[in-house]
Amino acid sequence: MANPKLDPKKLEEAASKLRAIAHPMRIAIIGLLEKQEQLNVTQIYEALKIEQASASHHLNILKTKGVLDSRRSGKNTYYFLKHEALSQMIECLNRCH
């Protein structure tokens, strides 16, 4: 008999988010957004010393999977963490090494 507390849909959503953050650069982006709350793509790629296209690619993946959200302000798009649970996952991972 299946455990009634395990919701397959919620488990798949969690797995999808974990796959989205399972990349060193995406973990670094989340780490930046933990400290700054919201940043635009320029601030992110300059802080991480990567190409703008690479930063945009990683931000798009994180946004598509529901890890980040964004808001427009003039010509800039600002990104921010969508769920505090993601910050807690990163803190947990940092304690595990």
How would you sum up this structure, described in words?
The protein has 97 residues and is of the alpha+beta class. The chain has one domain: Arc Repressor Mutant, subunit A, CATH 1.10.10. The chain contains five helices and three strands, in the order H-H-E-H-H-E-E-H. Strands 1-3-2 form a three-stranded antiparallel sheet. Strand 2 (68-73) and strand 3 (76-81) form a beta hairpin. Helix 3 packs across helix 4. The protein is globular and about 45 Å long. The mean pLDDT is 87.
Strand order of the largest sheet: 1-3-2
CATH topology: Arc Repressor Mutant, subunit A
Specify the CATH homologous superfamily: Winged helix-like DNA-binding domain superfamily/Winged helix DNA-binding domain
Estimate percent helicity. Answer: 55-70%
Instruction: Give the termini separation.
Output: 35 Å
Counting DSSP H or I runs of 4 or more residues, the number of helices is 5
Mean pLDDT: 87
Classify the secondary structure makeup into a structural class. Answer: alpha+beta
Overall radius of gyration: 15 Å
Biggest beta sheet attributes: 3 strands, antiparallel
Shape: globular
Q: CATH top level?
A: Mainly Alpha
Low-confidence stretches: none
Name the CATH architecture: Orthogonal Bundle
Compressed to H and E, one letter per element, the order equals: HHEHHEEH
DSSP summary, beta strand count: 3
Strand content: 15-25%
The overall number of domains is 1
